[in-house]
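Q: Predict the assembly, please.
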Amino acid sequence: MDWVWSHLDLIWSSTLAHVALCVPAIVLGFVVSVPLGYWASRSTAARGVLLTLGNVLYTIPGIALVVLVPVVLGLPILNPLNVTIALLIYAVAIMVRSAADAFASVDADVRGSARAQGFSGPQLFWRVELPLAGPVLLAGIRVVSVSTISLATVAALVGIPSLGGFFTDGFQRSFATEVVTGLVAVLVLAAVFDVVIGLIGRALMPWNRGRRLTSRAAKTLATAVPGGVGANL
Amino acid sequence: MSIEFRHVRKTYPDGTTAVEDFSLVVPSHSTTVFVGSSGCGKTTLLRMINRMVDPSDGQILIDEEDVSRVEPVALRRRIGYVMQNSGLLPHRTVIDNVATVPILTGTPKAKARQDALGLLDRVGLDRALANRYPGQLSGGQQQRVGVARGLAADPNILLMDEPFGAVDPIVRDELQQELLRLQRELGKTTVFVTHDIDEAFLLGTQVVILKRGGVVAQIGTPAEILANPADDFVADFVGAKRGKRRLTAEERGAGDDVLLVDAAGYPAGLIAAPGGRLELADALAAGAGPKSRSVSNKTDQAGDA
Amino acid sequence: MLFLQAIQWILDPEHWAAVNFQAGIAEELGAHLWLSFLALVFTAAVALPVGLYIGHTGRGRGFAIVVANVVRAVPTLGLLSVLLLVSLALPPAVFVFVLLGVPPLLAGAYAGLEAVDRQTIDASRAMGMTEWQILRRVELPLAAPLILGGLRGATLQIIASVTLVSNFGINSLGDFILGGLAANDYVQMTAGAILVTVLALLVDGLLAVVQRFAAPRGVSRGRGTTTARGRRLSVPTGTPVSEGN
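A: Predicted assembly structure:
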């Protein structure tokens, strides 16, 4: 425990570095995936291409992607951007599927009746489809957030600062306290992100408060990993 | 193979009562129909016979044998069961679906398949469909396969849970006629569940009208029930009260047949004038079929028409 | 450029054999596959029975979801660091990979059984199938594609994560990546990344093909069981275990 108190600075700076790697990937991942997922929910061809592509990208192992990104983009190997881009790729790979499911879950009757009432295309999207897809989108972004934070620890293997540094350093020094500190920090950070995203969801979707998770959202939580359950079905 | 319900009750753990104190004898070799709106417990009662549901209280006897003493799996294998959406195994061909129970009970595959082909003939299905999958059949064809499967083990008892509920009216008519034919040929003890009173009257030798909670509103032959509804509920349910089944006679001018008109004003049929001209009074005296009870009540109005 | 050099590096037969106690591609690939296979066997031994139980009885689904969410939050690298500090050997590493592989396979198994039409199962029971026969002859064949989908997810997860053991001195294809990084040999590093990626894609593609063939005839290609489906039923089915048997 002494080690923890004497290294609070390091823990804090590593946490900030970790957050800096993850947040752009999570936010951009969401922003990119929503339109792609919407497209996939509208067109079977788009769905096939996007989900297959997502599957293939997700198949690439973490460290491989982190070292391949600079090779392909010509960036220096120690640039933290490599990790963020790799994380973004995973985020999109997961989130596009969730978003496609989310929009597909909007009741066709509701959409039809809104159109019949005179909603224009964009109005239909912003006022009907997006809010109704909200709960499943929220479930998807929670999955993305948790797995991104956990995955970002591999940055340590290529020497980029993150909470993963405590794992590699602690192991080399045979110092379990440091490794466990890193583990706890990652779990706490994931929990904090999850709570924050949950609160944002609550604020944006007041009608969804207190309702139990819809079965579709629950399914997204359980099986959101591409290539896993439901792939190609 | 008679079936007897003795003071049967079914209460679910959440406190809802599906059936309270139901007693009935289902005579052998005839069709008994349970009819009622949803929530009347008719399906629950049906499923008690093959122990898909066990009663909370009371007994069900098949030929004096208490079914609760029979191992459910063995019991179910000797009772045919046909359900609304056929419940066919989607990954097995038609012929394998029909042969399922015989194969389960140890009949050699080749023989079970051979017998199944015969059953396809029996229910009016082309043998060419034998190697199709259920998903490749129409709704009506699926139901026929369902009936063939129910008959495959040559059971003495056949349970049918709204088997024609999900097919379109024309196909339903066809299937009902097929079932009547099968019943004439095979004489199974059949228990049939439906919410459609017309279907009940058409198919049932004995019709049991149920109220909420499995309470018997009336038991009888279709003619008995129609002629003497036990109470307002029954009268309403069979449509007599609303006048749905009331026929009135309308003279179409001199020398013509008498037209019978139903409550909605649609022509329901003709009473033919054998000798050319028929007085309305003669037609009414001759009687106008089983559903014409109210004709006599309506003489005055008909005469005015 | 680096990419092409890396591919040349892989195609060079010299790099497939061991040189100066340095393991070659063949050996690393073998080690990677062996470790993955071990983990997969144990994963299946744990996840299949539990998943089939949850799917058949409908109990414990919430538990499985919680496990999946917790596991997702735990960083593999951290868990490997802790357990391999305790004992630097294969068993703790295999344990970590099993932990990663269980959630997808578990979800595949129970979601697969849950996706089987309740009416089909009800009819099978009404015909006189025993619970075991329902599982064997109805639920398993119909759930096979989803179960294999779960197996596919578990396999991928494991193959990807096994790369990390190189950081702890256990052989895997990750050795080329980390070794290349340490020696500033970016050609070797890229070659390692390509090797792992190709392996993952190959195995995934293979399993995808198996999955396609596992779909029973009669239910593939959207030909559902729903042709005659008109409306929903309110059949008092109860729970399979509390009634009848």
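Chain A has a mean pLDDT of 85. Chain A touches chain C through 57 residues (CB under 8 Å).
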